[in-house]
Specification:
Layout (H helix, E strand, L loop, with lengths): L11 H9 L2 H11 L5 H8 L3 H13 L3 E7 L4 E6 L1 H4 L2 H14 L65
Antiparallel strand pairs: 1-2
C-alpha cells in the first residue's frame, strides 16, 4: 500500500485517510466544526505555518470537504466553509472527541461539553445501528464482503465476536 496513493485503494478506511489522515487536517476540521472559517484564524489557533495550512486547506477544497468563498475583495480573502461532504465527517470527529473525553481527559475533566439544541441536554456521542437503534460495539458486529469488494478483502477471523488482535 502506497501512502501517496491511498485514494486508489479498494478500502474505505484508506480512501478516507487520503483525505483526513494527518493531524493538521483533523485539527483544521475540528476548528471548522467550531465555526472557524478564515485562514488567519486557523493559523492563530493552530500555530501552523502558512504553507502547511494553505496545503491542507487546498486539499480539503480539492476533495470537496470545504468550499472556498470570498469575503473581501481588496485584498482578496476567502472563508472556508464545510460542504455537505464535510458535514458528513461530524460523526467521525465526534467519535474522536468521545474517545479523547473517555481515555485522555485529565483530572479537570472534558475540555468541551456538547449540548443538543433540540432537547437542551448535554450528551455523549454514541454510534447506533441504523436499523434497530441499539448501540454498536465492536464485538457485536460481523463484517461481510460488499458489492465493491475484491476477491479476498477480509483477513481470517479467529471468532465472529472477538477481534483478531486477541484483545478481550
Amino acid at each position: 500500500m502506497k501512502w501517496d496513493a491511498l485514494e486508489e485503494e479498494n478500502c474505505s478506511v484508506a480512501r478516507t485517510l487520503a483525505v483526513i489522515g494527518d493531524r493538521w487536517t483533523l485539527l483544521i476540521l475540528r476548528d471548522c466544526f467550531l465555526r472557524v472559517r478564515r485562514f488567519e484564524a486557523f493559523q492563530a489557533r493552530l500555530g501552523i505555518t502558512r504553507h502547511l495550512l494553505a496545503d491542507r486547506l487546498r486539499k480539503l477544497v480539492d476533495f470537496g470537504v470545504l468550499r472556498r468563498v470570498p469575503y473581501q475583495d481588496s485584498p482578496r480573502r476567502h472563508e472556508y466553509l464545510l460542504t455537505h461532504k464535510g458535514l458528513d465527517l461530524y460523526p467521525v470527529l465526534m467519535a474522536i472527541v468521545h474517545w479523547g473525553d473517555v481515555h485522555m481527559a485529565d483530572e479537570r475533566g472534558r475540555p468541551l461539553l456538547h449540548q443538543h439544541d433540540g432537547c437542551g441536554k448535554f450528551f455523549d456521542p454514541v454510534m447506533v445501528c441504523s436499523e434497530c437503534g441499539e448501540p454498536l460495539r465492536a464485538r457485536e458486529v460481523t463484517v461481510h464482503p460488499g458489492p465493491g469488494a475484491q476477491s479476498s478483502p477480509l483477513p481470517p477471523q479467529t471468532s465472529p465476536r472477538r477481534p483478531a488482535t486477541g484483545a478481550p
